[in-house]
Write a structure and sequence with these properties.
Layout: H1 11-17, H2 35-41, H3 46-55, E1 62-63, E2 67-68, E3 75-86, H4 89-101, H5 111-114, E4 120-129, H6 138-148, E5 152-158, H7 161-165, E6 173-177, E7 186-191, E8 195-197, E9 200-202, E10 207-211, E11 214-218, H8 223-246, H9 251-255, H10 260-272, H11 281-290
Parallel strand pairs: 3-4, 4-5, 5-6
Antiparallel strand pairs: 1-11, 2-6, 3-7, 3-10, 8-9, 10-11
Amino acid sequence: MEKFAPLNLSPEEIIEYTAEWEGERTPDGRPRVPDSILERMRHVTITQAWGVLRGEGYNWQYAGGFQCTQPGGVLVGRALTAMYMPRRPFMRKVMEEKGARLGCIGDQISWPIDMLTKGDVYVADVYGKIDQGPIVGDNLSTAIYANSGNGIVHDAAVRDLDGIQEIPNFVCFVRGWHPTYASPTIMLLGVNCPTRIGEATVMPGDVVLGRQDGVIFVPPHLADKVCTTSEIIRLRDAFGKLRLREGKYTPGQIDARWTDEIEADFAQWMEAHMDELTVPKETIQEYLKNRTW
């Protein structure tokens, strides 16, 4: 099968390298984590996700040092990756000829955007380029949002910041902003390929979580565990603070490993308030079913 860039992975290759995911997939082979998990992921903190991933041996999933175009915004979605490199004229010419045969329209920087579907996050490695680094301005941002309903993670600068900020809910994590334009200096090496963003390795279909303290890329098979762990942590924090306000326990008791008595109190509190709490009832029921104390 002909492909327009050297590192494009076929659906079969994506499935091979993401075989830990056993659920639904998109037509291009990417894991399709359910929308319900994506919605739960919006409440997860970067630290909570990092702790779960590190415990599972995924040590290089976090990337920091970004600026957010919508300060305080949260970005969640499924990664569609793209990798750019400095331009070699003949390589780019070959890719443009292949792209034309395959029906790709316009400049190379628009090709991945045409592939986006609802819930995707466009994750582009442009090797941190600032001057002549923007492959995205307000026009392409409008197209990205129209196709995906989501923002981007862009390891480079963007341009037309005022126009980008006018797009509602278009939360982007970028390396800065610059008025120059990248297309003459770069070439698209791959789409839906393994990509490095900062110190993180990103695979197509990873769940992207961007918050004010950085971006983390969650392997799909761990997304539910990350959400569930976060939800239990939030419940324990809410319970602990409640009991501290009531004076039932001391800070030393709540900050230490909980005794069986406190754990039993916590379980009773969850059962009594199951319909009022801000996490799915199923999470609470599963936690209570599996408790071992």
